[in-house]
Amino acid sequence: MSSLSRILLRGTFSFSSPTNGRFFSAVSAAAAATSERKPSLITLVNDERDPKYITEKFKKACESEWFRKNKAVYERTVRRLAAAKKFEWIEEILEEQNKYHNMSKEGFVARIINLYGRAGMFEHAQKVFDEMPERNCKRTVLSFNSLLNACINSKKFDLVEGIFKELSGKLSIEPDIASYNTVIKGLCGNGSLTEAVALIDEIESKGLKPDNFTYNVLLHESYSKGHFEKGEEIWGRMVEKNVPRDIRSYNAKLLGSALVMKSEEMVTLFDELKGNGIKPDVFTFTAMVRGFAGEGKVDEAKMWYKEMEKNGCRPMKYIFTSLLPAMCKTGDLESAFELCKEIFSKRLLVDEAIVQEVVDELVKGSKQKEAEEIVELANKNDYLQFKLRLSSEE
User: Fold this and answer.
1) How far apart are alpha carbons 100 and 68 in whole angstroms?
2) Which of 44, 127, 197, 273 could link 250 by a cystine bridge, Cβ 3.0 to 4.6 Å?
């Protein structure tokens, strides 16, 4: 490096020069100011544990315009209060919003309607929707869809179709595909699969196109409720209309195939989804295990369980509901014993009755020592409250 370059560098970066001294002082001051601003209003609300003080701090924080723009903290706060069953305080913090000009903007009001729905407070959601004209807030398909969603989230499935028909006509709102999809969810939730499927024709007659979400709701309702042939009809229509199938589509069909014990077809379907570049998830492998276990093909079921682990999926408790009883039924008690040990070592979730069944079968199979080990592991674990017993103790 030349002497001139070294001189220039020293002049530019020297901490002792007046200019740079002012620069670094300004940086330090800015850092200090940033430090002083913390904790933020959001942090103060999120870090609070007492529902009463959560409510008080939230209401105070709402005085800030930028705080009211934060959707996440609203959703988190309502979720926490709902979990604590403090619905009167949910009403308190959401009614507080009436003080602010935001309630004349449809986007903000739609958020409040959705929040009431997530808390299961549909009557409050409907009240907010009904009062929108009083705030000079126009009701369009945006707030209309929020009200329908609030109905679904509040488990008021029997009301969805009626609200859809009444308000869309009364308010001259033109429903979009999201509106129809929500109605389909409501009909399925109410056990009206035939009516839900029939809506596809109505959707198309309105010039709209049923999308991936539309078909996935219908596929899940059909296949999971044992209506395999209906599921196949919907699947065929989805293919015919060239609607893209995703992992939810395949998982629904895999579950349906497992329930009617079509394990060989499941393998073909699995290869198809992989060939389409879709990555299998824990629900995919759970269905595969369930299908083979249900047919008593334990070795294949164990193979799919290992494939799930290789793919980095953490097992859900439903998989053990299929796999452990199948192992016991076919006399593969050693595998059942090892799997139970793995469950507790990896802190996986499992139903107590399923593990008790394994213990009982181990005792019957003259594997008293193994049964005692499982009982000890189950009763001493610190994440599941189990009280297993050996058969001889009953």
Assistant:
1) 9
2) 273
